[in-house]
Amino acid sequence: MDAARSTENSVKRMQPTPRITATPNSDAQTPGLGYSWYVVFVLMVCYTLSFIDRQILSLLVGPIKRDLGISDTRIGLLQGLAFALFYTILGLPLGRIADTKNRRTLVTLGVLFWSVMTGLCSAAYSFSTLFLARIGVGVGEATLSPGAFSLISDYFPKERLGKALSLYSTGIFIGSGLALFVGGSVVQMTAAMPAIDVPLLGLVASWRFTFLIVGAPGLFVALWMYTIREPVRKNVLLASDGRPSQLSTRQVIEQVKVRWQSILGISVAMIFQSMCTFAFTAWAPAFFQRIHHWPPGQTGRSLGVIIVIFGCLGMYTGGALADRWAKQGMREAHLRTGVISGIGVCMFWVPALLVSSPYTTLTLLAPGFFFLGFPVGSAYAALQLILPNQVRGQVAALFIFIFNLGGQTMGPLMPGLLNDYFFKSELMIGTSMAITIGFAAIMTAVMFRVLYVPYRRHSLTMEELVTRIA
Question: Where residue 70 sits, what CATH number does that domain have?
């Protein structure tokens, strides 16, 4: 109560209105549940496409290293920093746009831009030019999550938000899985092909053609995205005259300061969770090719099936558990899934990367991906539930900035650094991945657990701030 009153007093000082409160939509303004799930499906397809475009490079490590003459460390930079740098930095102003402008249009333009930049990766003839093209992919994809989080939060009541954001988040595993499954087959198919004559580009190596193939569908998905309806915003901070309040940057910061422990804590916890994801997806194809001598097609199909089935199942289970626990009155319900996830990933993924049989590895990876998916949608929902509408996109962008700059940079980079500078052997990639993922999984569980107390307090603050209108 004190925190909510402090925030309200701060806003009064900055704006010539006597009172600011929060109100959800009336039932008359709420779209049908069927259409709401349709919107989540469209956004999930966009998210799936984004992960295909960002992950396809992991299947092309061999030919890219050969043609461009670069090291494992630079491959790690291409998969991590090149993408994550602008993906995270530009997310902050794009989050502001998501909170004040049409979110459907923002996401549509983003899908179109990153798809074009994925295609342009085919024209890169040096580390620097490929680095720039990967930056472009990150710039486009930075529009998606701030807009999607805000859209979905306006389409669903809070008791369904965990499942809804978990379904959206399955795009992570569907996209990563399809990138491996379909991409692996495409890479294997084109590997034996001679240089291909592409209009405007001329003769290009077969691995470059892969970027053109995976970038093309985005042009059609962007048109599909533009057909969805922009919902009326709910849980909007209102001025005393009943009109939505336009918060200044300083007022947004005041809202964040009240909840800084939960916002920062969840973001840091997801740094470690995403390190597990990106360390594996960046280096798993190289691991199976170097250690077990599997061709890209076999590697991609095997991993793709496991990631899609068990990752999505775990993500849905985590969201459903969080919603169920929340209905039972557990304010920290969405954080509990993160504790379970860290323990489960450590138990299964570390031995999976150290055993000698590739089939034992695959067997252990199945439950590992199930637990990995637990907290993703739940963590997104946890943040949305303690925030008023006018700051959701910006906090989502800040969240993405923190956990991607850490997780997506360090996840792919750490195994490469361990390989190049500690073990000094490409054949130690499994051990390098196990060290990275084991450490990150333990820290995931620890960080989510220490957030229970502050999150309960911030959840109560939001309830006291919101004035419900029947």
Answer: 1.20.1250.20
Cα distances (Å, whole numbers) of residue 278 to 3, 296, 384: 37, 18, 24
The range of the structural domain enclosing residue 444 comes to 2-12+27-235+248-465
- Exposure b/e, 357-373, CB count within 10 A at least 16 = b: ebeebeebbbbbbbbbb
Nearest to 42 by CA among 167, 166, 219, 225: 225
Q: Report pLDDT digits (tens) over 340-368.
A: 999 999 999 999 999 989 899 999 999 99
Q: Provide the number of structural domains found in the chain.
A: 1
400 in a structural domain? yes
- Contact indicator for 79, 58 with CB cutoff of 8 Å: yes
The answer to whether residues 84 and 409 touch, using CB atoms and an 8 Å cutoff, is yes
User: From the CB of residue 449, how many other CB atoms can be counted at a distance below 10 Å?
Assistant: 15
Q: Shortest CA distance to 352 belongs to which of 281, 438, 285?
A: 438
Q: Is the pLDDT of residue 18 over 60?
A: no
pLDDT in tens, 164-212: 888 888 887 788 777 777 666 666 665 566 666 656 656 666 677 778 8
pLDDT at 244 over 70: no
pTM of the model: 0.70
Answer yes or no: is 286 within a domain: yes
Q: What is the DSSP string of 382-410?
A: HHHTTS-HHHHHHHHHHHHHHHHHHHHHH
- Of 12, 32, 319, give the one whose Cα is nearest residue 155: 32
User: Of 358, 334, 365, 374, which is closest to residue 437 (Cα–Cα)?
Assistant: 365
**Tokens describing residue 96:** 């502001």
Tens of pLDDT along 103-120? Answer: 999 999 999 999 999 888
The two structure tokens encoding residue 378: 């739940």
Question: How confident is the model at residue 27, as a pLDDT?
Answer: 40
